[in-house]
Amino acid sequence: MARFDRGKTLSVYQPTGTGNVHIDAVLTEISLGWPNNSLVGEQLFPAVGVRKQSDKYYVFGREAWLPEVGDYRAPGTEANEIPGLKLSLDSYYAQEHALQIPVTDEERENVDSPLSPDRDGTELLTSKILLSREVAMQTLATTIANFASGLSIDISAVSASQWNTYATSDPIGMVRTGTRAVHAKVFMEPNTAVIPYQVMSQLEDHPDIIERIKYSERAILTPEIIGAVLGIPNIIVPGVAVGTGGMGTAGNAVVGSYLWGKDVLLAWVPPRPGIKIPAFGYEFVWSYGGTPMITDRWREDKRASDLIRVRRRYDLKIVGYEINPASGDFQKCVTGYLIKGAIA
């Protein structure tokens, strides 16, 4: 079916399943492909697909530290059997996070491509859902109370130690101190550092960093080079903004600021995430047929609009924590090190 408009032939948009909610494969792909380069996201909290909306999960167990003296096997005999990892007392609940937006018939009539408003709406919904997830991640990762004793330092009021005080600060030494502190707890060095944009832009000009690389072949600083200097292979530089203002606030009245601020996090993030693999944190995602983000679409004739909805069901957890109930750090993170107020 077609209509003629100013000499051009345009296809008339026909929503599938009028009046019924259906999963739109094309819009789901758009949602999954939305760029999130300025977010920390799965780089710090890898997504782990789960089959149930709520269940128990494994935390960093210590069973692997125990040597087995009975691992000898005589020919023709069975190997000694050992118990597996134990379930923690903690659990997740994959709450659904969803937003929807209308695409009016008038809006669709005023664009060259009928898909444009659907794409724009899907990307807006996706960005807002992932931004809310990022806010939750930032809160978990930058709250000192979440970390075991000796695994955080607050230098926000110590100007001589802040990394933009070039004459007296020692960022390399501070990171190495944090690395050793994590290693003493879990016998693995943190392999990921979250260095927000504001901090990274100051760190790139720090004389200690420049001194370390000035004789290298590449004199231009990159996150990879700074990671090599700090001994951290994976460097994340989030630069996403978060705005303040109530619902309905006009765009020109929204005040933005850097979400990740001036705090630096060192963390152990496994190269192969899994429900039985130790990590700083996980995002437990209850998927829809194996897809973490789903985009639905349906028609509402009384509103002369199509409705688009994006959904993600997840729970964020710090899973690498102290499991000894007798410890004063019980359920406090041992797989990360937090530096508060790294710059002024």
What's the short version?
With 344 residues, this protein is an alpha+beta fold. The protein has helices spanning 25-32, 105-109, 116-141, 171-186, 197-203, 207-213, 223-230, and strands at 2-5, 8-11, 22-23, 47-50, 54-56, 91-93, 95-104, 152-154, 192-194, 234-236, 241-244, 255-258, 264-267, 281-286, 294-300, 305-318, 336-340. The longest helix is centred in the middle third of the chain and has 26 residues, at 116-141.
What does this structure look like?
This protein has 344 residues and is α+β, with helices and mostly antiparallel strands. It has a single domain, classed as Alpha-Beta Complex (phage-related protein like fold), CATH 3.90.1690.10. It is built from 7 helices and 17 strands. It has helices at 25-32, 105-109, 116-141, 171-186, 197-203, 207-213, 223-230, and strands at residues 2-5, 8-11, 22-23, 47-50, 54-56, 91-93, 95-104, 152-154, 192-194, 234-236, 241-244, 255-258, 264-267, 281-286, 294-300, 305-318, 336-340. Strands 3, 4, 7, 14, 15 and 16 form a 6-stranded mixed beta sheet that branches.
Protein topology:
Layout: E1 2-5, E2 8-11, E3 22-23, H1 25-32, E4 47-50, E5 54-56, E6 91-93, E7 95-104, H2 105-109, H3 116-141, E8 152-154, H4 171-186, E9 192-194, H5 197-203, H6 207-213, H7 223-230, E10 234-236, E11 241-244, E12 255-258, E13 264-267, E14 281-286, E15 294-300, E16 305-318, E17 336-340
Parallel strand pairs: 4-14, 8-17, 9-10
Antiparallel strand pairs: 1-2, 3-15, 5-6, 7-16, 9-13, 11-12, 13-17, 14-16, 15-16
Helix pairs in contact: 1-3
